[in-house]
């Protein structure tokens, strides 16, 4: 995909998801509200308090690193580089975050949900199989194979995944309509909680016996 075309699609993606009308975090009431983390004395709130305007700098609105490939040398063959309010304090109250997704051959971004955001993903390089599962009673899998330059939407809080089905690496950019979308991996939530879910509960959920459930639970430390 030509660099100019990638830039046009990328700008359109960001423009769409940064619209106050579409952002799930609500409409900001000022030009900006750079997050003041406050260290150990920070007051818990929905979002962050505003940094004093006189101490705001361009660095509060800047992130470097999305041009660097993520390390996919791991069991999943996948790495995400997130850019949320934790990386750019100026995202506070703006209802927007994004990420770079790198996939090695056969790499998988395992089924997960973003409880506070819908997501739009655009493939920049390679081929990705993407999909999400609707809620009960249908639990229908909506899936498609995307090529470079194609985009796909994952509705808010629905279980979804991506898998590299090409012969080489794949790269995608995602934009989410929350400064802090959150991520919960489905399998890890069931088998890797702290403390562990009761074996009997996992066994019933998986329609398996207790020994199988205990063995699966033991794989997540």
TrEMBL record:
<dbReference type="InterPro" id="IPR006045">
    <property type="entry name" value="Cupin_1"/>
</dbReference>
<dbReference type="Pfam" id="PF00190">
    <property type="entry name" value="Cupin_1"/>
</dbReference>
<keyword id="KW-0732">Signal</keyword>
<feature type="signal peptide">
    <location>
        <begin position="1"/>
        <end position="23"/>
    </location>
</feature>
<feature type="binding site">
    <location>
        <position position="119"/>
    </location>
    <ligand>
        <name>Mn(2+)</name>
    </ligand>
</feature>
<feature type="binding site">
    <location>
        <position position="114"/>
    </location>
    <ligand>
        <name>Mn(2+)</name>
    </ligand>
</feature>
<dbReference type="InterPro" id="IPR001929">
    <property type="entry name" value="Germin"/>
</dbReference>
<feature type="binding site">
    <location>
        <position position="160"/>
    </location>
    <ligand>
        <name>Mn(2+)</name>
    </ligand>
</feature>
<feature type="disulfide bond">
    <location>
        <begin position="33"/>
        <end position="50"/>
    </location>
</feature>
<feature type="binding site">
    <location>
        <position position="112"/>
    </location>
    <ligand>
        <name>Mn(2+)</name>
    </ligand>
</feature>
<dbReference type="GO" id="GO:0048046">
    <property type="term" value="C:apoplast"/>
</dbReference>
<comment type="similarity">
    <text>Belongs to the germin family.</text>
</comment>
<comment type="function">
    <text>May play a role in plant defense. Probably has no oxalate oxidase activity even if the active site is conserved.</text>
</comment>
<keyword id="KW-0325">Glycoprotein</keyword>
<feature type="binding site">
    <location>
        <position position="114"/>
    </location>
    <ligand>
        <name>oxalate</name>
    </ligand>
</feature>
<feature type="domain" description="Cupin type-1">
    <location>
        <begin position="64"/>
        <end position="214"/>
    </location>
</feature>
<keyword id="KW-0964">Secreted</keyword>
<dbReference type="InterPro" id="IPR011051">
    <property type="entry name" value="RmlC_Cupin_sf"/>
</dbReference>
<keyword id="KW-1015">Disulfide bond</keyword>
<feature type="binding site">
    <location>
        <position position="119"/>
    </location>
    <ligand>
        <name>oxalate</name>
    </ligand>
</feature>
<keyword id="KW-0052">Apoplast</keyword>
<keyword id="KW-0479">Metal-binding</keyword>
<feature type="binding site">
    <location>
        <position position="109"/>
    </location>
    <ligand>
        <name>oxalate</name>
    </ligand>
</feature>
<dbReference type="GO" id="GO:0030145">
    <property type="term" value="F:manganese ion binding"/>
</dbReference>
<keyword id="KW-0464">Manganese</keyword>
<dbReference type="InterPro" id="IPR014710">
    <property type="entry name" value="RmlC-like_jellyroll"/>
</dbReference>
<dbReference type="InterPro" id="IPR019780">
    <property type="entry name" value="Germin_Mn-BS"/>
</dbReference>
<protein>
    <recommendedName>
        <fullName>Germin-like protein</fullName>
    </recommendedName>
</protein>
